[in-house]
């Protein structure tokens, strides 16, 4: 019996880039391991570390709200960086309260998790 687990990526729908203004970003309700965001700086791109983030966010679960950290990874490309937010609670995630960081915008977002081994075996 295989215990192989498959990664599942769920896109967070954005109709346009979303400013990091302390607002709530709804996510497709589900259980995830982390959230991946493509973030950038609105305006001049003359500072290479301008879009670096180490910001507190609030994860809104069905059964409560927890603080977590959004941090950038990798190098900047075209003024954009990938940021990750761990999702440690094993509860259904509903939304993320973005940090209040003027000039920083979310351009794309998705939730990443693993399908349980039983689901991958059944083809679900």
Into which percent range does the helicity of residues fall?
under 10%
Shape: globular
Count every helix, treating DSSP H or I runs of 4 or more residues as helices. 1
Order of helices and strands: EEEEEEEEEH
- Low-pLDDT runs of 5+ residues are 45-49, 119-124
* CA-CA gap between termini: 16 Å
Radius of gyration of CA atoms, rounded to a whole number: 16 Å
The total strand number stands at 9
Q: What's the mean pLDDT score? A: 85
Assembly form of the protein: single chain
Describe the biggest sheet?
9 strands, antiparallel
The class by helix and strand makeup works out as mainly beta
Percentage of residues in strands: over 45%
Comma- or semicolon-separated keywords:
124 residues, mainly beta, nine-stranded antiparallel sheet, globular
Write the layout of secondary structure elements.
Blueprint: E1 6-11, E2 18-21, E3 24-30, E4 34-41, E5 54-61, E6 64-77, E7 80-86, E8 93-97, E9 100-115, H1 117-122
Antiparallel strand pairs: 1-9, 2-9, 3-8, 4-7, 4-9, 5-6, 5-8, 6-7
């Amino acid at each position: 019996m295989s215990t192989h687990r498959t990664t599942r990526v769920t896109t967070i729908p954005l109709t346009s880039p979303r400013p990091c203004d302390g607002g709530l970003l709804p996510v497709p309700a589900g259980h995830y391991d982390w959230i991946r965001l493509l973030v950038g700086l609105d305006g001049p791109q003359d500072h290479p570390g301008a879009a670096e983030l180490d910001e507190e966010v609030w994860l809104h679960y069905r059964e409560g709200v927890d603080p977590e950290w959004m941090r950038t990874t990798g190098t900047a490309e075209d003024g954009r960086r990938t940021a990750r937010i761990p999702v440690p609670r094993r509860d259904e995630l509903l939304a993320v309260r973005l940090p209040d960081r003027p000039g920083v915008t979310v351009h794309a977002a998705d939730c990443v998790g693993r399908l349980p081994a039983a689901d991958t075996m059944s083809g679900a």
